[in-house]
């Protein structure tokens, strides 16, 4: 999906975005490419947020956190569907989005595009801030090395950067749509910030995987610290021989569920599930 977004963006520039509208050879084609690129922007941001929230659900076992996370997840999913459809159908017929400048006097109908753009941007910023702040109370409880704290800080700094991009972008929306008589020139700023926001948003959910790859290539910088005290192990209850699951949390790295087995008055533990965390 990101590849399609990037390809459409490149084709939009090739067709004349950045030039004055009267210097563009095929204005309808340029506006059409821009319109479909906008659709993929909405979908990519929504899917990236869903990816981050599902990552939270995988590494944080706290019930209150998970319930709130599911609520935000539902909100993001619903918002993504609604704004994808509203953007797709913002003008009827859809072709009005790239042929409306011709003003042939047909029965074309469009929503208030500025209001829709501002609403989408404002909700997007609110979701970014909530998703960014959501795990902080739990992360503050971690006792990890300075190096791992730096890695977490870097991840969250990118999250703050996304919020900044969203806020800056909302100030460029005013020229975007109804107030423009020169769209290929006036839409340049909003296009820049849309692209920056999209690419950084895609990077953030992939940071744990990127770190795992870099830890193999540069173990001295990104590798796991094996020194004592890096991980905090929760205190398990004494084995009872009843088969109840005991959760050992290796903070910052791995969650391991252990099943106690009473055999000849001795307790044995077998790894039954290993889930990679931060």
From TrEMBL:
Signal peptide: 1-16
Domain Rhodopsin: 9-215
UniProt cross-references to InterPro entries, sorted A to Z: Rhodopsin_dom_fungi, SAT4-like
Primary location class: membrane
GO cellular component: membrane
Provenance organism: Cadophora malorum
Name listed for the protein in its UniProt record: Rhodopsin domain-containing protein
Statement: the UniProt record of this protein carries the keyword Ribonucleoprotein: no
Organism taxonomic ancestry: Eukaryota, Fungi, Dikarya, Ascomycota, Pezizomycotina
């Amino acid at each position: 999906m990101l590849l399609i977004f990037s390809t459409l963006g490149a084709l939009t520039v090739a067709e004349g975005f950045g030039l004055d509208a009267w210097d563009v050879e095929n204005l309808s084609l340029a506006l059409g490419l821009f319109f479909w690129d906008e659709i993929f922007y909405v979908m990519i941001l929504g899917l990236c947020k869903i990816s981050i929230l599902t990552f939270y659900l995988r590494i944080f076992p706290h019930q209150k956190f998970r319930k709130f996370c599911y609520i935000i997840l539902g909100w993001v999913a619903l918002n993504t569907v609604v704004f994808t459809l509203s953007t797709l159908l913002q003008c009827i017929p859809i072709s009005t989005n790239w042929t409306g400048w011709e003003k042939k006097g047909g029965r074309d109908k469009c929503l208030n595009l500025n209001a829709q753009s501002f609403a989408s941007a404002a909700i997007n910023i609110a979701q970014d801030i909530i998703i960014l702040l959501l795990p902080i109370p739990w992360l503050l409880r971690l006792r990890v090395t300075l190096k791992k704290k730096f890695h977490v800080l870097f991840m969250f700094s990118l999250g703050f950067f996304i919020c900044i991009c969203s806020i800056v972008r909302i100030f460029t929306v005013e020229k975007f749509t109804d107030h423009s008589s020169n769209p290929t020139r006036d839409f340049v700023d909003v296009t820049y910030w849309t692209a920056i926001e999209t690419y950084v948003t895609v990077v953030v959910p992939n940071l744990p995987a990127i770190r795992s790859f870099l830890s193999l290539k540069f173990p001295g910088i990104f590798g796991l610290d094996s020194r004592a005290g890096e991980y905090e192990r929760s205190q398990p209850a004494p084995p009872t021989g009843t088969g109840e699951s005991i959760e050992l949390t290796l903070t910052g790295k791995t969650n391991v569920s252990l099943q106690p087995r009473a055999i000849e008055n001795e307790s044995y533990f077998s790894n039954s599930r290993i889930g990679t965390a931060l």
